[in-house]
Design goal:
This protein is mainly alpha-helical. About 60% of the residues lie in helices and about 0% in strands. It contains twelve helices and no strands. It has helices at about 5-25, 35-45, 50-60, 70, 75-85, 90-105, 115-120, 125-135, 145-155, 165-175, 180-190, 210-215.
């Protein structure tokens, strides 16, 4: 992204997210969970899967299995059957079990709150660690999922297809005390208004800020 685009967005950033907040007044994580560990499992399952589907699956799993020890001791093929409808079930099952073993072996059975420790868990990348850090432990982070990546580029907040680069850009221009809120706002807007294939620009509250709209790419 050019310096001119960044400086313009730094000036307008609060206005942009204030408008989004008016359109989405309760921007919260839509995954259901009762503990940091349940959230970690749900976030791993949510990769390339809807939160609605994940909630349907975890509503049955968490009634019976909800601790790192229980998942660490689970046979992978059994977990695969339980999470099959979330897609990529083999990799997700392997990652959940591996992360659970790390939590049991390295952190006394408790999900660590430190970001670097979260990132050290097997199968946990920056997005997952950022979500758990923000939602479970109240830290200010900017997880970059497909919605955040798409909207950041459409609006003109970033110019990269690499999540790590977009995360760095957003962290540098969004006020620190509203990073997590901004993350949730971009997700909600991406799910319900600025959809991937047919964005509803006629219903959008931020067309005055949006590069995509101003360039007439409708």
């Amino acid at each position: 992204m050019s310096d001119s685009v960044i400086s313009r967005r730094v000036e307008d950033i609060d206005g942009l997210f204030d408008c989004l907040l008016e359109q989405h007044p309760e921007p919260v994580c839509e995954l259901n969970f009762k503990s940091p560990f349940e959230l970690l499992v749900a976030v791993i399952l949510s990769a390339q899967c809807t939160d609605k589907r994940v909630n349907e699956v975890t509503s049955h799993i968490f009634d019976k299995y909800n601790t790192p020890k229980q998942f660490a001791d689970m046979r992978q093929e059994n977990l695969e059957r339980m999470i099959f409808s979330c897609g990529f079930y083999r990799n997700k099952a392997a990652n959940i079990i591996a992360a659970s073993k790390d939590i049991v072996d390295k952190f006394g059975g408790e999900v660590p709150s430190d970001f670097d420790s979260l990132l050290s868990l097997a199968g946990v990348g920056r997005k997952t660690a950022n979500v758990v850090s923000a939602v479970a432990f109240g830290e200010q982070t900017m997880p970059v999922d497909t919605h955040v990546l798409r909207l950041s580029n459409r609006i003109g907040l970033a110019s990269s297809d690499k999540p790590a680069e977009v995360e760095r850009t957003l962290v540098s221009i969004v006020p620190h005390d509203r990073l997590t809120q901004a993350h949730h706002l971009l997700i909600h807007h991406g799910r319900y208004i600025c959809t991937a294939r047919a964005p509803h620009c006629d219903k959008c509250a931020i067309t005055d800020y949006c590069r995509f709209f101003k360039e007439g790419r409708l």
